[in-house]
Amino acid sequence: MPMITAATTLRRSLEDPKSFITAPGVYDGLSARIALNVGFDALYMTGAGTAASVHGQADLGICTLNDMRANAEMIANLSPSTPVIADADTGYGGPIMVARTTEQYSRAGVAAFHLEDQVQTKRCGHLGGKILVDKDTYVTRIRAAVQARLRIGSDIVIIARTDALQVHGYEESLARLRAARDAGADVGFLEGVTSRDMARQIVQDLAPWPVLLNMVEHGATPSISAVEARELGFRMIIFPFAGLGPAVAAMQESMERLKRDGIPNLGKEMTPQMLFRVCGLDESMQVDAQAGGAAFEGGVELKK
């Protein structure tokens, strides 16, 4: 029997009006492992987190297709049955590059990605001063992705994101999303929703098309829980900073302790074995044993 891809799993979920997808933001293998171990059924690879972790840079259009595809592929292949939704920025060029992005993301095992209508030198959706392409150029991007998906016979889910709210207002944002829907996009995504009333309105104005909510706490959007988002009618919610935010705070505190006290003073539970077990140590040992290997017959615990 052929394996059902994560993209197919996600697409089937979207076809079920009772389903709701919550995806925490992950930015590297460790954050993805932790989210998987907690039990999330989907993950979101954040572009801002990729820029920060891979390059140590702000989310200002610095990441290339190769950067994003490589990170998404690594995350997606930690658990190939778990859908990964990935940021694809502007598609990294014109229609040919958008098609290439679609093909590469699909072959990397990504289940869904979102395309936006900023110019190539984009910035995070929760920063001011964004510059957008015109609606026709945006729709061309969406159409190129849809056609590429059909050409390769992929179920990858195409999410149409617009950043037009800050620049052109609600009505133009709605018009762009409707045009993207007509071009074949599977899900709508209004970036920077500024109120609960607007959140409710965009779902109603695009119904029955599935709509995603981007929940960036302390950004442009008021704090809305997954439960409330579902009640408002959204079908998907992503939390881009769920992994990155706590990691930054914890590392900052640890580095300051090390600088001040000469030792990080980590908790007793923070052993190398614990870290490696988060990252699949026990599963790797099982693979070796089942194959008849003897590499771990003595275990991995330190003798004291």
From TrEMBL:
Pfam families: PEP_mutase. PROSITE patterns: ISOCITRATE_LYASE. It catalyses: (2S,3R)-3-hydroxybutane-1,2,3-tricarboxylate = pyruvate + succinate. Coiled coil: none annotated. InterPro entries: ICL/PEPM, Isocitrate_lyase_ph_CS, Pyrv/PenolPyrv_kinase-like_dom, Pyrv_kinase-like_dom_sf. Keywords: Lyase. One of its GO terms (molecular function) is methylisocitrate lyase activity. Belongs to the isocitrate lyase/PEP mutase superfamily. PANTHER family: PHOSPHOENOLPYRUVATE CARBOXYLASE (PTHR42905), PHOSPHONOMUTASE, PUTATIVE (AFU_ORTHOLOGUE AFUA_2G03820)-RELATED (PTHR42905:SF15). This is 2,3-Dimethylmalate lyase.
